Amino acid sequence: MVIMLKQKGILLVAMIAIIMLSASFAAVLLGATSAPEEKSVARTEAAIAFTIIGPTFTSNKYSDILSAGEEISYSVSLGASSIYSLSQLDIVWKLETDWNTSVNVTGATLIWYYNYEATRDITVTVTQKTNSTNTSSEVIALQIIADLDGDGLPDLWERRYFSTTASSDGTTDYDGDGWTDMEEFKNGTDPTVKNPKPGFLETYSWLVALLAIIVVVVVLMVFIIMPRMKMEREADEKKKIAAAVEVEKSLLGLDELEDTPKK
Prior knowledge:
single chain, 2 domains, three-stranded antiparallel β-sheet, elongated
């Protein structure tokens, strides 16, 4: 009974370790399939830790692609563990304007729009009101594109490949390769040349990862854990047989007979 409990304990620990290793493997394989909307900024404890909230921001950088005339809205957020509150901070948004000048906007939320195609930077500076030396800043890189038909595709890009802005609305697939024109634009591929269609791995990467985990667990069970358990069971059976033989010999008095000198 004790040995069986020991075997079950070993199996349980092994299974937990396998699940943890498999989960780590799946995370690496999938690469985090969901992109967070907030960016975590690593800072020293004394600095002002803040996050810029925007609909397209990822954990890698603050950047955005906007259509000319589209309203933008960004805001500063403090973490739950922050030692400051927004009322204790001065927040300044320095914007490059359409006229190659700059303007400062204060407050935790910025609402703005650009009229012309260009690249623009917005610098966000957060300063402690009682200590002006305690300040932190981040830069938002913007790409403003002309999109007069409002389909999400830059007019210049549409005219480059289709000679007109009326051939695509972003949902069409001009070359019939399985990728929409919007996906071609985001991937940086030519929408008039057929590219490989989205394959099984791209569509079902999560399923591939799950199958890989199952294979790893089965291999470990078959070649490592189960043979070890079998050896332990066989050793346990041998011990039981030896103990039974000793008991039988004792009951039959064979020990005394063997110890009696022969005449």
